[in-house]
Amino acid sequence: MSLLRIALRFLILLVSQAAMGALPAFAQSGEPGCRPEMASYRLPIQRAQLTRDEVRLTFVGHATFLIETPGGVRIATDYNDYVRPPVTPDIATMNKAHSTHYSNRPDPGIKLVLRGWDPEGKGAARHDLTLGDVRVRNVPTNIRTLDGGTDYDGNSIFVFEIGDLCIAHLGHLHHPLEPGHLRALGRVDVVLFPVDGSYTLDQEGMLEVLKSLQARVMIPMHFFGGGTLERFLSRTRDLWPVERRGEPAITLSRAGLPARPTVIVLPGR
């Protein structure tokens, strides 16, 4: 092989490796902080080794978590084009309040794409299905419209039942929960909730939601930066203990839940 041909092959290899490491371009969104760096969490996700009673949660960023079951099912919450897990999930849930909570171009490898609204506008979305060892269902909620009105049943809280553990992702919740919502949700062991206090429900209202749910683990999301998160945590000082974790992933089981409701902060945005 000539030296010129070797040099050309080496150059092609370098260019292809650089292309593989490049970040895609991102559109702008109506919510602050949804810049390309939001997708910079290149988490080295390996398939979780879990016992039959365990679930692993990884905070990818914004409102997106990767949920992994003992049977190997992977779920991405509020799946969108800005913040995605570095693996193709089996299930993707979405809400439509902003483009950072849904995708019109989901990965074709996803087995189930569950939208928290009825795309045909005929009423509330209704999901209750099982894939492998996870049951996924939704509880419809309302959202504010740009003109100040209400889009009834425009979003959903998604509930994931895995073994004995019940996980609720509040999505882009805009209002307090009524008794009907609480009955539909049932027991919640782990709640993933937004704390920005403006685009979603205000922080005082969110505190009331958490009090009504009485989940043993409460994980904040959708906070756009440390200042907003710290303001929320300052409001919880006399209510619940706070644990700060250094890693974005946490493994949970019902038997291992804290004895009293606890806020657990995972690094992310």
TrEMBL record:
<dbReference type="InterPro" id="IPR036866">
    <property type="entry name" value="RibonucZ/Hydroxyglut_hydro"/>
</dbReference>
<protein>
    <submittedName>
        <fullName>MBL fold metallo-hydrolase</fullName>
    </submittedName>
</protein>
<keyword id="KW-0732">Signal</keyword>
<feature type="signal peptide">
    <location>
        <begin position="1"/>
        <end position="21"/>
    </location>
</feature>
<dbReference type="Pfam" id="PF13483">
    <property type="entry name" value="Lactamase_B_3"/>
</dbReference>
